[in-house]
Write a sequence for this structure.
């Protein structure tokens, strides 16, 4: 099993560009999450999904969009990249939501200049 | 919104010392989770707590669910160099299992051999 796979690992964007961060899991987990991590700020929840076709906003959703058309995939879209979106992005999944362990991907390091 | 506040923000200790850190919230949490993040990787679950007053151990780690349900504590006994990393508390805000899971800002631990 690959677990949670995130691509790309690194990306540099210019201000105003768009991109999609990919996340796939092969554990048949219903719950999936996107977090961003900035130094000293911990992990901030961007969006989460409790199953295919269902998504909900987290703590910092502005500037991002998500979709969940399948159980396996949970892509995160940045439409107009801004320097404030420079961060490390982590995707995670879990079996039964809060209380069951989150399985994290290895992260995508994004720089917007 | 609900936030988790961790203290201390960072610690620099000698190998063999015991470590204590805590996590507080202004509102009640029904589950407390402790994660550790090694450099360059995603966080990994250390301990999960589900009941007020619960005390759970995982090797040299012990965590407690505060009786007010607004705090939790993590202790590490006889620290070793591989304990280095960022320790996060996490929990589901609100009642019920909405799937939402938020993290504290982390405690960075450095261990001097």
């Amino acid at each position: 099993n690959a677990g949670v796979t995130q691509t790309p690992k690194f990306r540099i964007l210019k201000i105003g560009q768009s991109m999609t961060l990919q996340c796939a899991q092969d554990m048949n987990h219903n719950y999936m999450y996107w977090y961003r991590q900035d130094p000293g700020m911990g992990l901030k929840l961007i969006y989460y999904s409790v199953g295919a076709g269902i998504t909900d906003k987290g703590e910092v959703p502005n500037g991002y969009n998500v979709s969940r058309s399948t159980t396996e995939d949970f892509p995160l879209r940045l439409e107009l990249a801004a320097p404030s979106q420079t961060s490390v992005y982590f995707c995670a999944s879990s079996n039964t939501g809060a209380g069951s362990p989150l399985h994290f991907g290895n992260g995508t390091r994004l720089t917007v200049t | 919104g609900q936030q988790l506040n961790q203290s201390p923000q960072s610690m620099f200790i000698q190998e063999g010392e015991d470590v204590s850190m805590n996590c507080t919230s202004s509102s009640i949490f029904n589950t407390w989770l402790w994660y550790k993040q090694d450099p360059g990787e995603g966080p990994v679950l250390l301990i999960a707590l589900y009941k007020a007053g619960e005390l759970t151990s995982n090797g040299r780690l012990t965590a407690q669910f505060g009786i007010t349900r607004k705090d939790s504590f993590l202790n590490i006994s006889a620290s070793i160099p591989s304990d280095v990393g960022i320790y996060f508390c996490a929990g589901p805000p609100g009642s019920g299992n909405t799937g939402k899971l938020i993290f504290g800002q982390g405690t960075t631990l450095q261990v001097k051999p």
